[in-house]
Amino acid sequence: MTVRPGDVIPAWEIDEVSREKMKTMAALLADSNPIHFDIESVRRLGLGDRPVNQGPNNLAYLMNMLAAWTGGREHLRKISVRFRSNVLGDDHVVARGTVTEVREDGGRVLADCDIELLVEGRDIALSGTATVDVTHMSRH
Known about the structure:
about 140 residues; alpha+beta
């Protein structure tokens, strides 16, 4: 398989972002912000009636997509994203991307990609770029 500009990266989906996992991640990250687990706090702040997912989790969804496509996290070289909107509990999210450039660098084949995390039925939560090592994928 040869990686080429225009190639679509296989999507990585979560059918329903887990409210319970948000609570667990808040504890693991020592994130005491109640918007991740307390619905009354979410309502008081005018953010709706569902908890807000942690930003690192949303970024991880994009990284998981890239790792699944390339065969492992060790192939990720660079990622840069803009956080554009919230992901909420129970949202269906889709991480997706497209190869924009393929180049050689120091004997390695690198693919630059546009990436985004779509909240189905609503908007783009994250958008950005990534560079992955596709040397192992580009051998004939």
